[in-house]
Every structure is written in C-alpha cells, then in structure tokens.
C-alpha cells in the first residue's frame, strides 16, 4: 500500500540532486551550522574567525547599535512576543501603524501593510488578489514565495521566459482581455542577480490592462539613489501597481510588506491569509525596523560602498575566468555544473576560512549549482582581495568549476509552464 510519507524515505536514497559520491560533502555544506552572530564580515567561530560572504546584510546594518537598542528596550519592558495575537484581533499596535506609514512614505505609495515575514507578504498578496477566474503571468524565475501565493490563489498561472517582455506580451495577447490579469516579477532576481526590465514591463502591462506586481526584496535599500529599489533606479515608481518587499535583507530585521493604493492595502488587510491567520510582527522587530528604515534612507555612503565592492569582486572573478551570468547587482552567482559549488564552498571554508554558500536545486535548476557570493557595505577592500586570492587558488587546484549559466527555470523547475 503506498504511503504518502514514502517520498521521505526515497529522498535520502535518490541521486537526482546530489550523486552518492557527493552526498556527504553536500550534507557538510548545506545546513552547515552558523554561529549566532553570522552577519560578518568577520565572524567569531568556535575554531577561530571566518570571513562571511553569504548574507543579505547588504548595507551592513544587522549589528547596528540603533537596531539593537530599539529592540532591547521593547524586550526588556514587554518581552519577546508582544503583542500576542494576530493583527485583526489583538496584534495591531501603534508601532505597526508607524512602520506602515514610514514604509508607504519610503515607497511613495498611499498605504502599506506589514507582515511577520517577507514570504508571507508575497504569498498573502497574491493569494488575496488573484482568484480562480484570474490570470497570473509570472517570470520563469519569480521567487518561490510568489509562485506559492499564485498557487494558493487558485488563479490560472502562466510563466514567461525570464525577462522576456515579448514572450509576456504574446501570452497576454493569447488570453481574453475580459480575464482580469496580473504580471508578477522580482525587482532583482535572487539567484541570478539581474534586474527586471520594469519600464518595458510597465508599457506592456498598461497596453494590455494587466496589473504589475513587483517583489523587490533585494533591490530595496540597495538600488536607486535613495535606496527605494529597482523602480526608483529605472524611474517607474508610480507605474508599479503593488510593491512587495522584505525587511530581512538591506533592512536587516525580519518581516515583509505590501505598499500601494489605499484601496488595495485595505483589501489585503481583510483578505490576505498570511496576515489574518498568523501572529503579528513582534513589537521588538517593528521598533528595530523603524530604526533601520531611518538608517537606510540616509545610507548613501553604505550604498556607494556596496556597489564599489560589487565592481571589485565581479571584475576580479570574471578576470579569473569565473562565469557570473548577467548579474547587475551585488548578488554574485558563480555558476557551476552538478555540485561544483558544493566543492568550492567546502574548499573555501576549510582551506581559506571563507563562507560562501552553495545553492542547489530547487533554488537553481536541477543539474546546476551556484556559489552565491554577496559583498556588503561592511566588507573592506582587503576582504574582497582575500576572497579573490582564494578563488584564484581554487581555480588552480580544482579546475573546471566555471560553466554556463542555467537556462532553465529556477523557482519552479519541474512545473509545466501552464497550469489549468
Ligand atoms: C525575491 C525574494 N522574495 C521573497 C523572499 C522572502 O523573504 P523573507 O526571507 O524575508 O521571508 C526572499 C528571500 O529569500 C527573496 O529573495
């Protein structure tokens, strides 16, 4: 009799993702235990220091004293979990209202809504906004939390080829105009590091009556002169129908948000399952996020530094012959075949005391892997040089890591392009 848990026993034996030969190494690298203070760049570890290159603490705010102070004051007075309860019941406090006002102001929208984490913002917004009669057209590489939200919505999902606006338009033309439709993209693609062609996407959406929803988890704080994200960078802020974001990257706390017209945000407040049926963002996190948002808005020097570090690192890696695909942001994917990245990650850590995470399926297409390297504003030039010198060493000792960037979908690799 088949058991629904059979897949769990099969999982350990299957060689689809990691070959038998590589399994032990993969287990050493993936889910490797991190020390508590892992934001870095230099991290104290039980057996000495290491250099961190894999967190999304882009502006280096994770250990900022202002964030610690804001959170600690709340924890000392009210504990870790205040306020108890879900937002619609007992969980909404003045700090949430303040944070929502600040985020709306930052994103130049009428209103915003704060969720207890980023993935909940993406899932909740899509689940609430699309229904069984609607069409959701998504970039092939859209983040898994968006794909998840689209699936929960019950809407008809179609994927267009990554950043291919012509393909998007062809899909919109094939489907009846009478069907309400939304187009969903990331601002910055979290594994590839490239950005969405938002101006062209706005043109096509406006032409075909589709709403454009952008998850700018990685652009917020980093892209645009004032850190308002890719939409600011490309001059299209007021043409995006709904901005989604997370507090867990440049903002260096945890949580997520949706920002847009008041009518949409008011609706999400009552329709997004991920705000209705879960505990509110803790007050200590809301207080720290208010501080980090204030810092992010002023962080022109930190933004400059992260982009300088990005240029130094990516130029250096390309000169060494590594394949970085089309990245346009600090996200630096070193592409590898099979489990190459696992071996690179292990060698970097064991031989050079550098942490750069290996990313495997399902975050990247099956049969490929990437070493995901992320410079932050806190890295010194000497840190980048240390990494480059280690990568040079790796190239010499373990040849054959660099390969072509993947051309298959990242977030839903085994999904059919169309779902009924
Ligand atoms: C593009 C994108 N969207 C959403 C999320 C989810 O955000 P969080 O980790 O804050 O839940 C992530 C994080 O990995 C992401 O990269």
Q: How many helix segments?
A: 16
The coarse silhouette is globular
Mean pLDDT, all residues: 91
Question: Approximately what portion of the residues adopt beta-strand conformation?
Answer: 15-25%
The low-confidence parts are 401-420
CATH level-3 fold name of the largest domain: Aspartate Aminotransferase, domain 2
Class per helix and strand makeup: alpha/beta
**Total strand segments:** 13
* CATH class wording of the largest domain: Alpha Beta
What is the radius of gyration?
21 Å
Helix content: 40-55%
**Multimeric status of the protein:** single chain
Give the neighbour order of strands across the main sheet: 3-9-8-7-6-4-5
Which H/E pattern describes the elements? HHEEHHHEHEHEHEHEHEEHHHHEHEEEH
What's the CATH superfamily of the largest domain, by name? Type I PLP-dependent aspartate aminotransferase-like (Major domain)
What hetero molecules are in the model?
pyridoxal-5'-phosphate
**Major sheet characteristics:** 7 strands, mixed
What count of domains describes the coordinates? 2
Distance between the termini: 30 Å
Tell me what you see in this structure.
This protein is an alpha/beta fold. It folds into two domains: 139 residues, Aspartate Aminotransferase, domain 1; 234 residues, Type I PLP-dependent aspartate aminotransferase-like (Major domain) (Aspartate Aminotransferase, domain 2, 3-Layer(aba) Sandwich). The chain contains 16 helices and 13 strands. A seven-stranded mixed beta sheet has the order 3-9-8-7-6-4-5, sandwiched between helices. A three-stranded mixed beta sheet has the order 1-2-11. It has a three-stranded antiparallel beta sheet with strand order 10-13-12. Strand 6, helix 9 and strand 7 form a beta-alpha-beta unit. Helix 5 packs parallel to helix 13. Pyridoxal-5'-phosphate binds next to helix 6.
């Amino acid at each position: 009799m088949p058991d629904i848990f059979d897949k769990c026993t099969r999982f350990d034996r299957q060689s689809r993702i990691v070959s038998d030969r590589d399994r032990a190494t993969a287990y050493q690298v993936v889910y490797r235990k991190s020390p508590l203070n892992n934001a870095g760049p230099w991290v104290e570890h039980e057996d000495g220091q290491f250099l961190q290159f894999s967190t999304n603490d882009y502006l280096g705010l994770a250990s900022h004293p202002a964030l610690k102070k804001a959170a600690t004051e709340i924890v000392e007075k009210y504990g870790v979990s205040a306020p108890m309860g879900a937002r619609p019941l007992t969980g909404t406090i003045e700090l949430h209202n303040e944070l929502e006002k600040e985020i709306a102001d930052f994103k130049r929208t009428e209103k915003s809504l704060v969720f207890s984490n980023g993935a909940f913002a993406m899932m909740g917004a899509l689940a609430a906004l699309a229904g069984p009669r609607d069409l959701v057209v998504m970039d092939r590489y859209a983040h898994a939390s968006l794909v998840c939200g689209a699936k929960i919505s019950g809407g008809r999902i179609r994927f267009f080829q990554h950043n291919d606006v012509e393909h998007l338009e062809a899909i919109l033309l094939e489907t009846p105009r009478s069907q309400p439709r939304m187009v969903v993209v990331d601002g910055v693609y979290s594994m590839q590091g490239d950005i969405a062609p938002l101006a062209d996407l706005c043109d096509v959406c406006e032409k075909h009556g589709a709403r454009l929803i952008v998850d700018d988890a990685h652009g917020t704080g980093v892209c645009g002169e004032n850190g308002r994200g890719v939409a600011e960078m490309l001059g299209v802020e007021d043409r995006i129908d709904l901005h989604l974001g997370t507090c867990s990257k440049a903002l260096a706390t945890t949580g997520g948000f949706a920002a847009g017209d008041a009518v949409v945000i008011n609706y999400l407040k009552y329709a997004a399952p991920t705000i209705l049926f879960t505990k509110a963002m803790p007050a200590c996190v809301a207080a720290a996020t208010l501080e980090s948002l204030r810092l992010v808005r002023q962080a022109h020097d930190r933004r400059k530094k992260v982009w300088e570090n990005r240029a130094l690192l990516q130029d250096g890696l390309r000169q060494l012959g590594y394949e970085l695909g089309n990245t346009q942001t600090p996200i630096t994917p070193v592409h590898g075949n099979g489990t190459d990245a696992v071996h690179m990650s292990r060698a970097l850590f064991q031989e050079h005391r550098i942490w750069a995470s290996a990313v495997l399926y399902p975050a990247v297409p099956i049969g490929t892997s990437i070493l995901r390297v992320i410079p932050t504003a806190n890295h010194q030039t000497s840190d980048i040089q240390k990494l480059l010198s280690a990568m040079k060493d790796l190239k010499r000792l373990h040849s054959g890591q660099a390969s072509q960037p993947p051309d298959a979908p990242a977030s839903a690799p085994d999904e059919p392009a169309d779902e009924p």
